[in-house]
Structures are given as structure tokens and as C-alpha cells.
Amino acid sequence: MTARILINGDLVETGLKQAVINPSTGGPITEVCVAQAREIEMALASARQAFDKGPWPGLSLKERKTCLLKIAQGILEKAGELADLETLNTGKPIKESTFMDIPSSAETFKHFAGHLEEYLEEETLNIQSQVSTAKSRLVREPRGVVVLIVPWNYPLLIASWKMAQALAAGNTVILKPSSLTPLTALELGKIILDAGIPAGVVNILNGSGEVLGEKLCTDSRVDMVSFTGSNEVGKKIISYCAASAKKLVMELGGKSAGIVLEDADLESAVNGSLCSIFLNQGQMCTAMSRIFVQEGIFDKFVADFTDKAKRLKLGEGSDFQTQMGPLISEAQRKRVLSYVEKAKKDGAKLLCGGKVPDEAGLKKGFFFEPAVFTEIKPQAVIFREEIFGPVAIINKFFGFEEAVELANSTEFGLAACIWTKDPVKAKDLAGRLNAGTVWVNTYGMFFNELPYGGFKQSGFGKELGREGFLEYTRLKNVLEDASGEARPIVNYWYGF
Ligand code: NAD
Fold first, then answer.
1. Whose CA is nearest to atom 43 of ligand 1?
2. Closest ligand 1 atom to Cα of 463
3. Is domain 5-252+458-478 given the CATH code 3.40.309.10 in the classification?
4. The CATH number of the domain covering residues in 257-440
5. Ligand 1: distance of its center to the CA of 209 in Å?
6. What residues have CB less than 8 Å from 214, skipping those under 6 apart?
7. Ligand 1 centroid – CA 252 distance (Å)
8. Tens digits of per-residue pLDDT, 139-191?
9. Whole-angstrom distance, CA of residue 189 vs CA of residue 393
10. pTM of the predicted model, to two decimals?
11. Catalytic residues
């Protein structure tokens, strides 16, 4: 069955179709409709109309909450099917789709349904100055039409983060999933239709980022763009949006640092660090792609880490025993391979992996053996650039100051991990790291209650939490004179 796109409350068939590939086999899964100029125009017009004249912004907060809870329920009812589809399309191990991606997506809709009234509560302030007094109401309004552009590494989860927040705040949306992984987003579209969300409030377009991205982001009917993806594309989007000064949220790349102090619990630091770079085949924006280990435990850490990396079980994502699936595409595998070659040229020492596996069963898909490097010079390409694949680099450090300097010596600032038993050192280090999220003795914990977002070239704006939600609102100040008898001076400025 051809997967159709969602526009103005209808699943729409288009003239142009595209194949979607299963990265575990390299073969096609299905074909998907591709939006072209006509469908893009229809989606823009319908999202604008639904916001300006449709029922959505006028629904009571209670009704809005009910709609979002129905979406959460719809995701849970189809959880098994969605997990299978996510794994089929991304190659990620089914354990990850089943226990992380799908339930977390439902949880996000539930969270923002449960908190939208609190987050949107008006604030009243009484202000007094030397010349007048005033009463102000600070009102949170939706921004309008919001374009949501998401990557392929967590297709349903990141789409759900953005959509739940945007809808809870009262916006209408156009979602553009990656054309490599549009399937679960389009299933979400069906769940949204079943939940009875009014036509035009949610539109989901599949197609080339270049074509759709530019058209959607430059259009004056769009008020905001929330983007998660690479720095290269992020910068293009910033330039598309500049002419109309749109509100932007940018969640971009990373080159995050894991710091292991010598008093850390070694086993948990090794296991946590493996997860921090190899989960989802290393295709995580928050991957700890640079691991710095203190001198006293360096050799033991590297030996244990490498031994376990060699034992990771590669295989089809659909197998519950699989610990590492394929990379997303042949192009991505070539990109990761080219970084491994550059690292070798730059003098780094490869301890294991870093190549296409020899097993016959892994020949068809885009599999890649997890690589572990040491002795990487800070000026080497793999030390500086985001690889977005299963390539761990482990370097030694001696003192605390050196660890801070190494961790911060990157143009990114997304996340960091600290492994230590000393809470004082952890607090000190966390305070000095240039990263939007710092995990201590853990990795990758995301909560709907907590804001997430990077510093420096990892982007700006937050996702999740009250702060993330408020990005999808605009703040209006309604000010009235409260001086009573002593009337405001402006009314009599000219003496009339
Ligand atoms: P990408 O930037 O290539 O694509 C992201 C999305 O942008 C896709 O939907 C794509 O179709 C679209 N796109 C492509 N060209 C476009 C254009 N010119 N205009 C508008 N949209 C366009 O990223 P990717 O390869 O899908 O994902 C990997 C990147 O995403 C990595 O850099 C990773 O760090 C980043 N990422 C960041 C976060 C975060 O929260 N900071 C989370 C996940 C992924």
C-alpha cells in the first residue's frame, strides 16, 4: 500500500512517489507519496486557514487536552505496530523502538495535555513607578502556523515532541519528516485523524528537504520553524527565515564529551559510555563521541570498553537479541567509513571495528562494526567533526583542568557525561562544561518535564519542559492604568 500524506484532514495521493528502504536489507519496504508545489500550497493554505478561521485556537483548553490525550491513547493502541515499523524503517533494534521511542512518544502527548493549563496560565502584575501605576496581564498565545522539520534518527519521537508542544500551545502545524523515514510520522497522521483533530490543524508532508524546506520556511504564512537536524541544513533554514524574521528553534549537531574520573565506578562508567556512543548505532545528536578518561584507570577502561565493543551483537533490528542494527543508508555508511579513514591518516590508533562486517548475513544491509580509537590528536578531523555513527574515540587526561579544556574544545555544546563517585567534583565540573545537558553517572535520560537544548553551534531554543513548551507561544503584555485619581501623566502631557 502506498503511504499517503496528510493535508487538511485528508490522506492525499500524489502524482510523485518514492521508495522507502529497509536499512537491514537494502530493499524497499513500500512507496510513499511525495509532496510537490501543489500539495505544499494546499498544506500552507489549510494550516493558515485552520489557525485564523478554524476551530482549533478557539477550543477550550479542556477540549484541547482531550484531543491530545486521544492521540497519546492512539499511539499506545498501535504501539506494537509502530515499534515494528520504526525498526523496519530505521534499522534500530526493536528493543529500542519498543521500550523507548514509541512509549515515550505517547508519554509526551500525555505530559503536555496534562500541563498545558498550568503552562498557559496568565500572570497578573501590579507595577508602580514614580509617575504612574499599572496593572499588567501577561498572556501566552499560540504563535500561529508552525513548521516542524525532523531528522531520521528518532522519527516518531522527535516528531511527537514537537507536535505535542505545538498543538498543546494552540498552533496549527506542518510536519516534514525525513524522506528516509516518513512511515511512522504518516501513521501518526492517521492516529490524529482518528482522534478527531479538526481538518488543517495537522498536515504531514513527505518529500525532499531542499524542495519542501525552502518553500515552507520562506512562506509568509508560516510564523515559526522548529528544526532538528544537521548544522549544515540548520544554517540554510536560518537564512530562509531571515527575510520574514520568523521565530526559530534549532536543535543541531554535537560532539559531546564523556569524562571519566579515576574515582568512578569502572564497570558502570564503561557500560554507560558504551551506551552513550553505540546506542542507535551512534546516530544520536547527544552521542558521547569523545570520551576522556583519567590516567589512573585509562588502560583498564580502554581494555574493558574495547572488549565489550567487540562483543556487541550486530543484526537485523527486528531480532530482540540484536544490540546494534545497520546504519540508516549506504550514504551514511560511506560517510562514517570516510571518517575512519581520515582518523587513521591523522595517526589515531584503531583498536577494533571500523569496517563493513564479513558475516554473510550482514552483507545486504548497511551494517558497520563499531570502531574504537585512541591516541587522537585534538586537531584531527574525527576529534572536531560530528560523525553520527558508531565511532568511539578515547583519550587520556591527567588533571581536572585538562579535562575541562578538552571537553570544551569544540564548536558544539549539546551535552556531556561525568562519571565519578565524588558529588563535589561532579558539581564543579558540571558548572564548567559548555553543554546544555550534563548527565552525571548516567546517559541519555530525557524527561518531558525538563528542557533540553544545546549551546554554541548545537543550536538555540529549548525542547520539552515548561521552557520548551513556551517556545511555541508568544507573550503578550496587556497593560492598563491603575492609578485611579492620580491619572497617568501621558493623558495630560500636552496640558489639555
Ligand atoms: P539533516 O539536517 O540532513 O535533515 C534533517 C531534516 O531537514 C530532514 O527532514 C531533511 O529532509 C530536512 N532538510 C534537508 N535539507 C533541507 C533544507 N534545505 N531545508 C529544510 N529542510 C531540509 O539531518 P539528518 O541527517 O536527518 O539527521 C542527523 C543530524 O541531526 C545530525 O547532525 C544530528 O546531530 C542532528 N540531530 C540533532 C538533534 C538535537 O536534538 N540537537 C537530535 C537529532 C538529530
1. 285
2. 40
3. no
4. 3.40.309.10
5. 9
6. 236, 240
7. 8
8. 999 999 999 999 999 999 999 999 999 999 999 999 999 999 999 999 999 99
9. 40
10. 0.97
11. 251, 285
